[in-house]
Amino acid sequence: TGTMMLELQERVSELENWTDGKGLIIHGAGNTFCSGSDLNVVKAISNSQASGDRSEDGMNMCMFMQSTLTRLMRLPLISVALVQGKAFGGGAELSTACDFRAGGGTGWALRSFPTQTVPGWGGAARLVAIVGHGAALRLLSGATGVDPETARHLGLSEETLGSSDGSGALEEARAWLGRHTEGPASVVRATKEVVAAGRELPLEAALRTEKDIFGRVWGGPANLQALERRAKHK
């Protein structure tokens, strides 16, 4: 819904100011990760055609959510979408804004079939980066959801969790994420930043960014403590 879109933006703003954070898990309630756009909202935007604002309203929603999900993707946190159950349309797009996707979801469909439209929140561009051009085209043009085995095979999902209940799956996701967020926050966040730079920037710009981030971490408290520990073990 429109309210949920605003709430998501607010949460992203809070996370941008969470300076000591290392990881993030996004999950849904019950058997649905996120079912995508509320059809009543979509219908309301479509019905505004009489005033000539249908295209403008749709584009405003598109740009708002592109901005929010891009900011989510760029957070210096290692993020996991815990996909339990269905992730359709905008919900599937939300999952692509995370670094990893895990879970035992039985339905993942990026294309919004009820409204016969295409991704507009950046999901298609991110999907190409995740699974490649050919697989992305097959997923977007197919008429069925993606099962966990196919998601793993394509590289869309990182892990299939054993727990079927929400609390058990969340604990599994926390344990999995914990293996990638060990160590000081400054180093984990810097790692995410250099990877994000390599993904989004041209090579020369990515190299400059990596150099700057390395310079920020090198000689810092975590680096000096690690060097001291290694010296003592020799």
Overall description:
This protein is mainly alpha-helical and 234 residues long. It contains eleven helices and six strands. The chain has helices spanning 2-16, 39-47, 54-73, 90-96, 123-131, 133-141, 148-154, 166-178, 185-200, 203-217, 221-233; strands at residues 23-27, 32-34, 78-82, 86-88, 100-102, 107-109. The strands form two sheets. It has a three-stranded parallel sheet, sandwiched between helices. Helix 1 runs parallel beside helix 3 (54-73) and helix 4 (90-96) packs across helix 5.
Main CATH class of the largest domain? Alpha Beta
Shape designation = globular
Helical segment tally? 11
In the sheet with the most strands, the strands line up as 1-3-5
Number of strands: 6
What's the CATH topology name of the largest domain? 2-enoyl-CoA Hydratase, Chain A, domain 1
- Mean of residue pLDDT values: 85
Strand content: 5-15%
Measure the end-to-end span: 59 Å
Task: Summarize the biggest pleated sheet.
Answer: 3 strands, parallel
Helix content: 55-70%
Give unreliable regions as ranges.
none
CATH homologous superfamily (4th level) name of the largest domain: 2-enoyl-CoA Hydratase, Chain A, domain 1
* Architecture per CATH nomenclature, i.e. the level-2 architecture of the largest domain: Alpha-Beta Complex
Keywords: Cytoplasm, Lyase
EC number: 4.1.1.94
Family: Belongs to the enoyl-CoA hydratase/isomerase family.
Pfam family, one: ECH_1
